[in-house]
C-alpha cells in the first residue's frame, strides 16, 4: 500500500502495478515469487481515480494536444507490463558513480509507505558502506518542520559521507509532496541550499 493509513476509494483497472510491487517486496525479503491473480492482493490506495477522470476529460486532452485517435489514458499499461524485461535490479553502481563525482544525493521516504518503504532504502544505503557523519553516529536524528503551528518533528535523518542524506517524512505515504507539502518544500529547499533540514523557510 502507498499509505498505510489512507482510505482506499478506488482500485485501478490494471493489476500489474500491484503484482510488480509484490514481486519487489518478496524479492527484498528473500521470498520466492508466487504466481497468483494480482486482483486478490491488497489495494495500493494510490487514489488514481481522480487522475484517470481528469486526464481523460475531453477539454484536458485537447489542451494537451492529444489526438482523438489515441486511446484513453491509463496509469499502467498491461501491454507494456507484459513485455517489459527488467535488466537492472539495483542502482548501486549508479550511486557509486554519483558519489565519486561529488553529486549531492537526497533519498527520502514517507514513513507510512509500505510499497517503497524507508527500511528498504536504509538497508540499500547501508550496503554502500558509507561513513555516518556526526560527532557520534547519528542514525535517525529528528528533523523539524518550522511552520505556523510551531516546531514539530517532521521525520528523521541520517547523513553519510559522500554528500548522501537519508530522510523520512513523518506521517507521509508514497506521494510525499502530496501528503506533506509544507514539510516537503522545507526539506527540498534546504537540501538545494545546503541548509539544516530543520531551518525554517524564509517568508
From TrEMBL:
Pfam families for this protein: Peptidase_S10
SUPFAM superfamilies associated with the record: alpha/beta-Hydrolases
UniProt GO BP: proteolysis
Keywords: Carboxypeptidase, Glycoprotein, Hydrolase, Protease
Superkingdom: Eukaryota
Gene3D superfamilies hit by this protein: alpha/beta hydrolase
InterPro entries tied to this protein: AB_hydrolase_fold (IPR029058), Peptidase_S10 (IPR001563), Ser_caboxypep_his_AS (IPR033124)
GO molecular-function term, one example from the UniProt record: serine-type carboxypeptidase activity
UniProt keyword Transferase present: no
Family according to the record: Belongs to the peptidase S10 family.
Name of the protein described by the UniProt record: Uncharacterized protein
Organism phylogeny: Eukaryota, Metazoa, Ecdysozoa, Nematoda, Chromadorea
